Amino acid sequence: MEWLTAIRTAIDYMEAHLYDGADVQDVAQAVYLSPFFLQRGFSIMTGYGIGEYLKNRRLYQAALDLKHTDDKVIDVALRYCYETPESFTKAFTRFHGATPSQVRGGASIRTFLPMTLHLTIQGGNEMNCRITQMDSFKVVGFERTFDNETAYEKVPAFWDEIVQAYCANVWAGNPPANAFEKAVADHHIGEYGVCVDDVAGNRFRYLIAGEYMGGEVPEGMTVYELPRGDWAIFDCTGPLPEALQRVNTRIFKEWLPGNPDYEFAGVANVEWYGMGDTSAPDYKSAIWIPVRRR
Q: Residue 218 is part of which domain span?
């Protein structure tokens, strides 16, 4: 499915399923995309996560029901997929700044209308992209599972944690002090950030990794094999995280929508990090996305 059409179809699906508990997994299945890629594209193109959009639309419609019907609060709560009046009231008050009873009494509400999506073509410069066929290869690294809704905040914190605990010493040129630091040095861990969308529910695995060179792997680390296939490689130049974020946004807003030749394939994508000062204006990095011809 063409990317812009997929996002529009996702919005239509959510609007038709506000009352039946549809979640990210259901929306992704409806548009034949993985939850990870759908979440990333939807967030970049609209500014909202899938779960956030569903929640906001449900709470707005709930406020309209309270204003224009005599339905009990518990009935409205159940209609919009809240298990208890208490959880509904808490979410409702946080969103609207007023309780359900206050809204029923005439308090103002926050408007959140169905979203429409329009494509604006940006001109002036081409994206630095090449399609490359790569053989399968293995990476090894530190793994953690993240929720799609909070990943943008929590993944950088994961990097800070791993770098401080296992990488900083050997990156400073010192000999490894333990098996984990030896693995960091032997496999150049920190060269890749690998997102793997093979976890049930609204989650994905993320590895801070390097290319696996063979040998013993310390307990608690993960080896993952990236399959042979075509990859779209988008080169980035500039300080992190701005350079990668800028290119990632352009991939989803400009390169994917309406692309007549390629679409997403596979369950993993890769961030590549070069050597040097990540804050330098000429720092090199890249985003690798598995693709297939339409």
A: 129-293
* Same domain, yes or no: 85 and 138: no
Looking at the structure, do residues 165 and 260 belong to the same domain, yes or no? yes
Does residue 113 lie in a domain region?
Answer: no
pLDDT at 120: 52
Structure-token pair, residue 83: 């298990």
Whole-angstrom Cα distance, residue 206 to residue 144? 6
Are 183 and 140 spatial neighbours (Cβ–Cβ below 8 Å)? yes
- Are 179 and 262 within one domain? yes
pLDDT digits (tens, 9 = 90+) for 40-74: 888 888 888 899 999 999 999 999 999 999 999 99
Instruction: Copy the structure tokens of residue 47.
Output: 């500014």
- Give domain status of residue 35, yes or no: yes
Chain centre to alpha carbon of residue 259: 21
Distance, in Å, from the CA atom of 251 to the CA atom of 45, rounded to the nearest integer, reads 10
What's the alpha-carbon Rg for the chain, to the nearest Å?
A: 22
Same domain, 133 and 92: no
The pLDDT > 90 percentage for the chain reads 63
β-partners of residue 222 are 141
Q: How far apart are CA 40 and CA 22, in angstroms?
A: 18
- Give the pLDDT of residue 112: 92
Q: E strands, the chain, where?
A: 129-134, 137-147, 192-196, 203-211, 222-226, 229-237, 262-264, 268-273, 284-293
β-bridge mates for residue 132, sequence order: 231
